[in-house]
Design goal:
nine-stranded parallel sheet, 899 residues, Pectate Lyase C-like, alpha/beta, 31 strands
């Protein structure tokens, strides 16, 4: 609670601080707005297009004193950085001062933009509105400014490459003046009511004037003095008292084209005067528009240059805005302004007739029953074409009879022309879907062959358009078909707004029919909603077959969701157990069923341990026998292949055996006495197997190489075997057995944390098993390869056996056989030897491979043979006695020692 109270206090403090900052900011903004409003004024700027019309434009400016820029430092007070992309901006200022220039710029190379300013000089005869002094890099742009009552509105002195656009100069002595300035551009500027000249050029060249207007100049519209190569295009010069254009003797190479000269030098012979040289009033084959051109021949220019416009263009002599030629062709008066007259009473004045190219003396030029005035002002049809939209219906008929659009051949945009609908299909040309079935008339006729006058062509209760949209047949009654198998007929799907081809229109996993049947919305994805609050979503209710609007479908007092979660049937009444009842029931179940099962399982494992024990002991005995066979009979190396396989089986058996012990130890169970004894015996057997059988036999293989009485090829083959089968490759087997010993020893001792230690030891042991398996597979392959390398042994042995003359004595015979008997299994020799020979060979090889002086007793030999599992017959016993005698004699004579 204390923590919550602290949070509340901190929140209140933050709210108080935020509110205080907001009110301080708000008061600051109000003060700034009041200061700004006090510095703003509204100026009414008047610009006169001609002497009879004025237009007032209201702008809001900020009052400012005259601006004088004489260095870059003076510009830092204005926004911008002075670059081409970010110039300094002087804008929206109102400067009124009769004692100074409005804006003067000099001594800078920065880029400057002057725009939307109002400058008034109070009729000054000494100062200039915008004065650009010695700015030669084209860095000044003057845009949309109004300059009033200065000696010169815009004055350029020694300034080049600057731009002036949409500026207005009124009531100044000179609208614009250029002195020693070059390559400047003036576009769409207006100069009105200049007391002297509208534009004055002095020693300035290569400037360009485009689409400017000079109106009501008291002297010249444009005056040139010692200037050349300036270009004037599409400018308008009106009502100059003297010449609209005047060029003195020092002006040359000026070019004028497409300029309008209207009512300049009234009463004179020409609106332009040229005393210079090489000036041109044309370009190519285009001249200028001359107010007073007679209409034939070139237009003459006054002055000593005897210049003229060879390609003059007519304007309008009577100023009625109708070309004189058109007036003559249509019987109108070219000497008076009759533009407002309407001699044919069609609602169009002569000027409007001229503008629409209609006959001013014919009220219906195209004879379509609509007069020209109505066509132009009301219907916007072509007064020169009786069928404006080319739909084969007369414009007058479309307007007065069919009420169709004479400008649109298909008024209702249904694909049929108005003419086709009226004359062929009898459909409504004003309604694209006459029968209101959702298909246009054109679609019904051309695509679906349905009746455009019947919304349900097949009368199945479903509109044609809906059937078409969902790929049903609008020409066949398919009301009761359920195409998508959602338990809704086509008619029901239409009424519900669902898709008859999709059993789940809203893709929420619930069929449309089921949703409608259970008052759900088949058009709304509501599978995750739980309307009845029973813990089941609508989708889960559908899958379970429960009622999505009833939390307990089977009315057994349990929520459907709870029943499903707890494995109950929500459609069948269930018995609910209280928590304490569940606990009691669980305890009874545990005591009566689960615990006995566990003890039975453990008992089975212990029985399996005992059963596996005997199997392991037998396998160890068999392995010992296999190893003894191999090393008793040094030639029977093939037997080692099967021995390796037996080792693998033995290890697998031992793995399962130890796994059962691991289960008991991991469950903290103690080994019983008999199990401990079995484990100890297994340990002893394995220890003996590792130390006495494996290691001794491996060392013995190495010793065989030193036998001097072996033939050379036998020694070579054994050497190769030892090289391939080195001590290093025996180490995985030895290591694996060592780990087994350690593992068994630890289980027997049960010291420390048995379970954790076994877990650490067992994976390592298993890893060594995999090495043993790899080793076994590898050695089997090597031994087989060696056995296949030399077949001489078998053939030589066959010769010796068959040589009865040289083998009268058994001892000599066996000696010879032993010399060549290399890597050959007795199974291979069986077809060549009789039973007695095989028995004697086994005995000889066994004795030969042992330490004879220590094993000369007959009983020991027989016991060893029996231990090895060999069959000892009576003949064999007799043979043993004979051999022992011979060996004893041989030993006494010193012949029985191994070399």
């Amino acid at each position: 609670m204390k923590r919550i109270a602290t949070y509340i206090q901190l929140s209140l403090v933050l709210i108080l601080i935020t509110t205080t900052v907001f009110f301080v900011y708000l008061s600051t903004q109000i003060e700034e707005n009041m200061v700004l409003q006090s510095n703003q004024i509204t100026i009414d700027s008047m610009s006169s297009v001609n002497s009879n019309e004025t237009r007032a434009v209201k702008k809001v400016y900020t009052v400012h004193s005259p601006i004088l820029i004489e260095s870059d430092d003076d510009l830092t007070v204005f926004p911008g950085s002075g670059t081409k992309d970010n110039p300094y901006v002087i804008e929206n200022y109102s400067i009124t001062d009769s004692t100074s220039h409005g804006i003067k710029i000099s001594g800078t190379t920065k880029y400057i933009l002057i725009r939307d300013c109002y400058l008034e000089g109070g009729g000054s005869s000494s100062f200039y509105g915008i004065y650009i002094y010695s700015v030669a890099d084209g860095t000044i742009t003057v845009f949309n400014n109004t300059i009033n009552s200065y000696n010169v509105g815009i004055f350029l002195y020694c300034s080049n490459n600057n731009t002036f656009t949409f500026n207005s100069v009124i009531c100044s002595n000179y609208g614009m003046s250029l002195h020693s300035s070059f390559n400047n551009t003036f576009t769409s500027n207006t100069i009105t009511n200049s007391y002297y000249d509208g534009i004055f050029f002095s020693c300035s060249s290569n400037n360009s004037f485009i689409s400017n207007t000079v109106v009501n100049s008291s002297n010249y519209g444009i005056l040139f003095d010692v200037s050349n190569k300036n270009t004037f295009t599409s400018n308008i010069i009106i009502n100059s008292y003297s010449y609209g254009i005047y060029l003195n003797e020092s002006s040359k190479n000026e070019i004028f084209v497409k300029n309008f000269l209207i009512k300049n030098n009234l009463g004179g012979s020409s609106q332009a005067c040229d005393y210079g040289t090489y000036n041109k009033f044309y370009s190519g084959t285009t001249g200028n528009y001359w107010y007073d051109w007679s209409g034939t021949g070139p237009y003459p220019i006054d002055g000593s240059a005897n210049n003229f416009d060879p390609y003059p263009m007519h304007v309008d002599l009577d100023q009625d805005n109708m070309l004189d030629k058109w007036e003559e062709n249509n019987g109108l008066n070219t000497t008076i302004d009759d533009s407002a007259e309407d001699p044919d009473s069609d609602g169009l004045t002569n000027l409007e007739e001229y503008q629409n190219s209609t006959d001013p003396l014919d009220s219906d030029t195209d004879d379509d029953s609509l007069n020209d005035g109505d066509e132009v002002t009301i219907y916007s049809t072509d007064p020169l074409d009786s069928d404006t939209d080319d739909d084969s219906l007369n414009d007058g008929d479309e307007v007065t009879i069919y009420s169709t659009d004479p400008l649109d051949s298909d008024t209702d945009d249904d694909g049929f022309s108005d003419f086709q609908e009226v004359t062929i299909y009898s459909t409504d040309p004003l309604d694209s879907d006459t029968d209101d079935d959702g298909l246009s008339d054109f679609q019904e006729v051309t695509l679906h062959s349905t009746d455009p006058l019947d919304s349900d062509t097949d009368d199945d209760g479903i509109p044609d358009s809906w059937e078409v949209e969902f790929l049903l047949n609008p020409l066949s009654n398919d009301t009761y078909v359920d195409k998508d198998k959602d338990s809704l007929t086509n008619l029901e799907e239409y009424q519900a707004g669902t898709d008859p081809n999709d059993p789940d229109t809203d893709d929420d996993g619930i069929p449309d029919g089921w949703e409608l049947c259970n008052s759900l919305n088949p058009l709304l994805y509501d599978s995750s909603e739980d309307l009845d609050g029973d813990g089941l979503t609508n989708l889960e209710e559908y899958l379970a077959g429960t009622d999505p609007l009833d939390s307990d479908t089977d009315d057994d007092g349990l929520f459907d969701g709870w029943e499903i979660e707890n494995g109950k049937n929500p459609l069948k009444k269930s018995i609910y157990l209280k928590p304490i009842e569940k606990i009691c029931f669980s305890l009874i179940l545990l005591i009566s069923v689960i615990l006995p099962l566990f003890f039975v399982y453990e008992h089975k494992i212990r029985l399996r341990i005992r059963e596996n024990f005997s199997g392991i002991i037998n396998m160890q005995t068999k392995l010992n026998e296999e190893f003894d066979k191999i090393f008793i009979n040094t030639s029977s190396l093939l037997l080692f292949i099967s021995s390796i396989e037996e080792i693998i089986k033995y290890l697998e058996k031992l793995k399962l055996f130890l796994k059962d012990y691991l289960f008991i130890s991991s469950n903290k169970r103690k080994l019983r006495k008999i199990e401990r004894e079995q484990l100890n015996k297994t340990y002893d057997q394995l220890d003996y197997f590792v130390n006495n059988t494996v290691l001794s036999k491996i060392n013995y293989l190495v010793d065989l190489i030193n036998f001097t009485n072996l033939q050379s090829f036998k020694k070579e083959m054994l050497t190769k075997l030892i090289e391939k089968w080195s001590d290093q490759e025996f180490k995985p087997i030895i290591a694996s057995y060592k780990k087994l010993l350690s593992f068994l020893n630890y289980i027997i001792s049960f010291k420390g944390d048995t379970f954790s230690t076994i877990k650490k030891l067992f994976p390592s042991f298993a890893h060594n098993w995999s090495e043993v398996f790899d080793f076994a597979t590898k050695k089997v392959t090597i031994v087989k390869d060696i056995l296949d390398e030399d077949n001489r042994t078998l053939s030589e042995l066959t010769k010796i056996i068959n040589d009865k003359k040289t083998n009268n004595k058994i001892l000599d015979r066996l000696k010879k056989i032993s010399l060549v008997y290399d890597k050959i299994s007795l199974n291979k020799l069986s077809p060549l030897l009789d039973f007695e020979d095989i028995e004697i060979m086994k005995l000889w090889l066994y004795i030969y491979s042992k330490d004879v002086p220590n094993r000369i007793e007959r009983d020991e030999v027989i016991f060893d043979l029996q231990f090895e599992g060999e069959f000892v017959s009576e003949d064999m016993t007799t043979a043993i006695d004979d051999l022992l005698k011979q060996f004893s004699e041989w030993e006494r004579k010193g012949k029985g020692k191994k070399k």
